[in-house]
Amino acid sequence: MDEYFRQIAEHAGRGERVASAVVVSSRGSTPQDIGARMLFFENGATWGTVGGGCVEADVRAEAVRVLADGQGRALEIDLIDDVKGEGDVCGGTLEVLLEAWTDLPPPRT
């Protein structure tokens, strides 16, 4: 967890916006548990994981919007295939909270 906040402080301390994603709810079978965290940086780099594959693709797309407008939001990701009625990858649902971080003082060394 310390590394998570260090990364936020380091990047935001340089005036860069950071988008954080945290799994806040998990129902059924999902690739990550509540509390999984991922960071998205303006240069396209990332840190951590919220599940990989289609989950991270959906979260990344929303994180790009957070980086652009600075507005946090919640995202629900359904991993159930509605057409087949089967589990898509895992078969559950995740809720991810995305937040924007910026204008923090640089970390102490």
Overall description:
The protein is an alpha+beta fold and 109 residues long. The chain has one domain (2-101). The chain contains 2 helices and 7 strands. The strands form 2 sheets. Strands 3-2-1-7-4 form a 5-stranded antiparallel β-sheet, sandwiched between helices. Strands 5-6 form a two-stranded antiparallel sheet. A hairpin with a 4-residue loop joins β5 and β6. The longest helix is centred in the middle third of the chain and has 17 residues, at 53-69. The protein is elongated and about 45 Å long. The chain starts with a helix and ends in an 8-residue tail after the last strand. The mean pLDDT is 85.
Structural class: alpha+beta
Rg, nearest Å: 15 Å
> Would you list the SSEs in sequence order as H and E?
HEEEHEEEE
Counting DSSP H or I runs of 4 or more residues, the number of helices is 2
Beta strands, count: 7
Helix content: 25-40%
Describe the sheet with the most strands.
5 strands, antiparallel
Number of domains: 1
Beta-strand percent range: 25-35%
| Overall body shape | elongated
